[in-house]
Amino acid sequence: MMGIPEMKLLARAHARVNGAIASADTRSDAHKIVDALIAERGQKIMEASWWPLAKPVVESVLRYPEAVRMAETIAPMQAEAVFEHLSGRLKLDVRTLNSERLPTSGKIVIVSNHPTGIADGVALWDAVKGRRRDLSIFANRDAIRLNPRLADIIVPVEWRSAFKTREKTRETIRLSGRAFEQERAVVLFPSGRLAYWNDDEKRLCERPWMSSAIALARRYEAPIVPIHMGARNSGLFHFLARVSTELRDMTVFYELLNKTGQRFSIHFGKPIAPDALEGRDLQELTERMRAHCFETLAQDPDADFPG
């Protein structure tokens, strides 16, 4: 049985070990944020007994070290420099059609289907930067966690239901209002989630859209430029989607980094005047806009919006 002196020695030893462990954490802030973002997407998996054995393999497959280096590189950059860096790194093969339909100035709402994730925003940047660089993109708040300066371009939206607050909602509303006051090009991917593979139809399918895009266009009397974006995620992403939503979501950085040189086809539809959106049911208009962007413009870029 240990006496008090031995117990004090043991306590001091534990303190030294814990202090050494704490001081040994030499990860950069960006590195810690990448770890947090992945952990938030894979909470149950990381609590599993087999995770310590699988972790090195999973991190290697998902290009985790490369994701950390990328995050550390962009962490100190200004917002526009981040997009230019990602553009130069990925070198996407962006093919545009009818990009002249995007006005070079004035408030506008750009809506698009959402086939791949973060890379969709980079592809859109590449597609429009020759005409407009004053973008305000509604995107996951996680981007701001990596680099707060991205708030100059990104309107942050909280995707984690447990972390949604009135304050964050008010911030999103305030920043969107400011974007329209400044007559910027406001970009939304109204599904808020990535397209999924439909086994029965043997194709990608766009998820249901939220009504926020049309609601904003109505409120601020802004025209809408509808876009169809053609691209897809890897087979690994769609395989993991069948196995585990957490494993699927943990590919967030992998599905950005693996897009190097990938083709993105972007069809600009005809602008839709604000008055064409008035006097109609919001949900019905939203569903028509989803079908117009995802299906119609893919086949007929000159089609009129059937409002």
From TrEMBL:
| Organism (species) | Salinarimonas ramus
Q: Which SUPFAM superfamilies match?
A: Glycerol-3-phosphate (1)-acyltransferase
Q: Identify the InterPro entries for this entry.
A: Plipid/glycerol_acylTrfase (IPR002123)
Q: What is this protein called?
A: Acyltransferase
Lineage, opening ranks:
Bacteria, Pseudomonadati, Pseudomonadota, Alphaproteobacteria, Hyphomicrobiales
Q: Which SMART domains does the record cross-reference, listed alphabetically?
A: PlsC
Question: Which Pfam families does its entry note?
Answer: Acyltransferase
Query: Any idea which UniProt keywords this protein has?
Result: Acyltransferase, Transferase
Coiled-coil ranges (or none): none
Superkingdom of origin organism: Bacteria
